[in-house]
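We close this part of the discussion by returning to an individual protein. In the encoding step, the backbone of a single protein was reduced to a row of integers, each denoting a local shape. The sequence in question and its structure tokens are set out directly beneath this paragraph.
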Amino acid sequence: MRAVIRPLADWEFFLSDPDTAPPPGIPPLLRLYALLATADAARTYRRRGWSAARPLLEGAQPAPGASKFGGLPAGTAVHLARRQVFWSQLVLRFLMPRADCLPRSLALARCLSALGLPAEVCVARALTSTFDKDNFHAWTELHGIVLNDNQDVTVGYRVLQRIRSARLAGPPAAPNGRRRPTS
């Protein structure tokens, strides 16, 4: 009976490698700041389009108190970022219930940038496609790891643009266009 009452496994193993350290907690005011930045990006995209929302991401700066998250090891930073996907998508779903991949990626990248993580939006074109609707796709990456889509999405698409905050440092791009993982 004891095995039924006690949880069998911690669900967090789905979010990262077991060898990484658990990420630090985010203070409530810092999370609120990041979610307000997410909402601002979503509203701007909805009202004025990509050309007005893109500078919000490129000019994003970390919130006060987010400096400790910018220096996290790559594995820990990805773990922390995956914890934030739910919150940013919750705000986006409230503001834009039928959002496609580009606003979802913009919202997540803006949220993570406010937390001091160098996330970037990747806009890509399909290598092969049978439908015009499926020609382009967007996702968010952090240290070369796809956060809001399947990691295999990088195989079927050629990245056209990588957009991120100019104020956040990140690893240099590898020759194949992907980011070099840092440890």
Remarks:
- The mean pLDDT is 83.
